[in-house]
Write a structure and sequence with these properties.
The chain is mainly alpha-helical. Helices cover about 85% and strands about 0% of the residues. The protein has four helices and no strands.
């Protein structure tokens, strides 16, 4: 009887071992199949990315966000320059020959900056000359002519700067629009 129980137990163990081996073989075969399918899908994704000039979606999205931030910064700087020029234009239009113009508020690359400095020097010279000469003095009248001519040059320079910054604004808006369109496509590309 003990031998019968032992044989029965050995058969049960052998059956379980056989089932475990078959289960293990099934799982191993299934994993190999899934690995092959996954490899095929990854190759298709790689091919798709190459054909569509895509890089890693997360990297591309990060680059788009950084560019958007850069465009936003440039846009704000440009808009600030536009507002400064508009304010300065209004101030210049209202200025008399005895009024100094605000200096150092424009960037050094602006053509109007040296003109404003020269204008202010002439206004200061006129003010000093008025202390010893009358308003109808020929020196004073010549200074006023120079001041007025310089004022017109400043206005023209500010107008040109405004045109230039508006062109930059349109370019930045177009680039932002293009970038926004690309960013909107990222979730679709990620599929």
């Amino acid at each position: 009887l003990d031998k019968l129980v032992e044989n029965y137990n050995n058969d049960a163990i052998e059956d379980k071992r056989y089932v475990a081996q078959k289960t293990s073989k099934f799982i191993e075969d299934r994993l190999n199949l899934l690995a092959k399918e996954l490899d095929d899908v990854e190759n298709e994704v790689e091919t798709f990315k190459k054909e569509n000039n895509l890089i890693d979606i997360e990297t591309e999205a990060t680059i788009f966000r950084e560019n958007a931030s850069s465009f936003e910064k440039s846009s704000i700087e440009n808009e600030t320059k536009i507002n400064i020029i508009k304010t300065l234009q209004q101030y210049v239009r209202q200025a008399n020959v005895d009024v100094l113009l605000p200096a150092n508020i424009l960037s050094t690359e602006e053509n109007a900056s040296p003109l404003i400095e020269e204008y202010n020097q002439l206004v200061l010279l006129r003010t000093r000359q008025l202390k010893s000469a009358g308003p109808k003095n020929t020196v004073i009248l010549q200074l006023e002519q120079k001041i007025n001519a310089l004022k017109e040059n400043i206005e023209a320079s500010l107008n040109q700067s405004l045109v230039n910054y508006n062109i930059v604004k349109k370019d930045l808006d177009a680039q932002r629009s293009l970038l926004t369109g690309k960013m909107a496509k990222v979730p679709t590309q990620e599929k």
